Amino acid sequence: MELNTFQKQKIKFTFDFFLDYNKDGAIQWDDFQEMIKRYKDVNKGSLSDADYKLMLASLEDEWKDLKALAHANEDHPVYANEDHGARVYANEDHGARVHANEDHGASVSFDAYLAMWEKTLATCKSVSDLPTWCQKMIPILFKGMDVSGDGIVDLEEFGNYCKNFQLDCEDVPAVYDVITDGGKVTFDMNRYKELYFRLLTSPSADAGNALMGKKP
Q: Long-range contacts of range 212-216, CB-CB < 8 Å, 24 or more positions apart?
């Protein structure tokens, strides 16, 4: 499935802001570890040890999917990481696998990340069609935003989320107003799932943009 320019921009946003922590233009396993560390730093205990274990397992599965798809497509390779001496071997079940440092010694380009989402979104009609690792991440990401743990993200918590992840949100109250549809909708887990899915799949600007700190 060929994504349009706007959809590609959203995928690039996710890549740049939430995954490529060292800003080298590629994803390494170390970037995923930094993601977990940042959540621990900013969430002040709202996520339990069990949440972090699930987050780690979900990221492991994402990493495997990403590498498998990238290896299967010569145009979007996974590059060996010289520091870890990664070596690539064919794998009948997954296209390929990387042997190095527990399968983590590789570097994945944005093109590979984009290719993964193009393949995923081609048959994605609802949240239940997303990869299992992605579905497992949704409640964790929500809980990371809902620092109070009351099941609702209020304006202050949303503002802190934008600040902590350095989102370029010029008008937090206005963006939060989009999320709650002018106060008609509660920003709970169900609303987050809806917005998350729209952020991933919508071909044009809509309320899903709010998770990037943007109005439609």
A: 212/10, 212/13, 212/17, 212/167, 213/162, 213/167, 213/168, 213/169, 213/172, 213/175, 214/169, 214/175, 215/171, 215/174, 215/175, 215/178, 216/178
Taking the whole predicted model, whether its pTM rises above 0.85 is answered as: no
For residue 27, list its beta bridge partners.
108
pLDDT in tens, 143-170: 889 989 999 999 999 999 999 888 889 9
CA distance 49 to 139: 14
37 strand-pairing partners = none
Tokens read off for 8: 């590609």
Q: Give 109-138 pLDDT, tens digit per residue.
A: 999 899 889 988 999 999 999 999 999 999
C-alpha closest to that of 192 among 131, 144, 156: 144
